[in-house]
Amino acid sequence: MGLNHDLAGEYQAIVMYIQCSAKLTGPYRRELRALFQAEIADEQGHAQFLADKIASLGGEPTTEPRPVPPADQPREMLGHALVAEKQAIANYTERLRQADAFGDIGLKVNLESQIADETRHKEELERVLAGWDER
Ligand SMILES: [Fe+2]
Ligand SMILES: [Fe+2]
Questions:
Q1: Where are the domains of the chain?
Q2: Nearest ligand by distance to the CA of 92
Q3: Does the record's keyword annotation contain tRNA processing (predicted)?
Q4: pLDDT tens-digit profile of 40-83?
Q5: Ligand 2 centroid to residue 103 C-alpha, Å
Q6: Which ligand is nearest to the CA of 7?
Q7: C-alpha to C-alpha distance for 13 and 88, rounded to whole angstroms
Q8: Yes or no: is domain 3-61+72-130 CATH 1.20.1260.10?
Q9: CB-CB contact of 78 with 125 (8 Å)
């Protein structure tokens, strides 16, 4: 299974959202910071779940995040975040099929919950980006 690949993606999201929270500038800094901060808590929960599951399966949970793409402008940060959330949904959807084939219903249910979280993140980012140029 690609659970370590997914874990590296969760670490990337945590690092990216912490860095974006710090670097954000402009009139929407406070709102966007709150958005990123709320997602960090979710991603941390996902990372812990994945690390626990990898260890339970006898594997070694990775400590390496995927590389975080550089961004200076809020619009760019939101774009990178959207790509990462879409990637997470795609990864967990594939992992869910594997868990089903493997017969691990508990993992399947947890992955469904993580897909629901990432879908909410994705839709929220899409709503922000959809109105970005309408001022
Ligand atoms: Fe996540
Ligand atoms: Fe997310």
A1: 3-61+72-130
A2: 1
A3: no
A4: 999 999 999 999 999 999 999 999 999 999 999 999 999 999 99
A5: 26
A6: 1
A7: 10
A8: yes
A9: yes
